[in-house]
Amino acid sequence: MSDYGYTFSINGEFVDESDAKISVLDHGFLFGDSIYEVVRTVDGRLFAADRHLKRLHNSANALGMPLQRDDEWLLQHWRDMHAKRGGGESYLRIIITRGVGPLSLDFSDCETQNVVGIAKPLNRWPDEDYAHGCKIVLAKLRRNPKQSTDPAIKSGNYLNNVMALKEARAQGATEAVMLNVEGNVTEATTSNIFMIKDGIVKTPALKEGLLEGVTRGFILEVCRDVGLKCEEAVLSGADLLNADEVFITGTTRDVMPVGQINEEKLSRAPGSLTIKIANAYHEVLHDPKNSQ
């Protein structure tokens, strides 16, 4: 346990914060050579853990570091983290590093991955952001291109996101939306973004360079289930500014309406279709078939 109320584990063993240590020669620390996934609980059970595991494997394989722990071990450890933390819903992060090796970019001597677990109470975002919409900004910082460190990899190297969020906070905003090098919308720092125009829901296509959010995937399904046309598209900042409704999504945010982009306020926040989608997603969250 920590002063923040967090619970920690190292390679499956629960430890106090003072003992939550890995070597300074771990390549996750030295080079950001690591991956991670966050699973939340709903009604005390893991939500969409199968989808998070699939993405974890995709990230691991993209970095050439296939997982050394099997899926059942990872699932059970997420459950153990929640049980160990105790009380209320949980945010459960598992970080998997390349492991310890020489001080070199060559990772061929990194034989054993380290698995770090951090559990904390599930984030509660301000009610105001849901009631009237949050503020976002279009960041000046551009998203890493797919030809560089692909944003589809959920790696421990998050400086691009950190610096974009710094821009947002300097302007009193909740989130920063990043454009790619072509000037097209990709994603926010810890969220995917959707817009609605003339009754059509749109979100940036994966080819634009973004993480395939688990909540994003559910929202695409939800829109079709409730009879809304939904497209993965190429979007510009101007498209967002001219949208009828905008919302962001994520594991801890669910569906959060946007009320302001830069200094422009949206007239519908939250709009009726955003509310419809949010309510339908709430049913998905509490559907037992999505929990483990």
- The CATH superfamily of the largest domain is identified as D-amino Acid Aminotransferase, subunit A, domain 2
Look at the structure and give the mean pLDDT. 96
- Kindly name the structural category: alpha+beta
Largest sheet: 9 strands, mixed
User: How widely separated are the two ends?
Assistant: 25 Å
Uncertain spans, ≥5 residues at pLDDT below 50? Answer: none
Number of domains: 2
Number of helices: 8
CATH-level-2 architecture of the largest domain: Alpha-Beta Barrel
Q: Compute the number of strand runs.
A: 15
Report Rg: 19 Å
Give helix % range.
25-40%
CATH topology of the largest domain: D-amino Acid Aminotransferase, Chain A, domain 2
Order of helices and strands: EEHEEHHEEHEHEEEEHEHEEEH
What is the level 1 CATH name of the largest domain?
Alpha Beta
Q: Tell me, briefly, the overall form.
A: globular
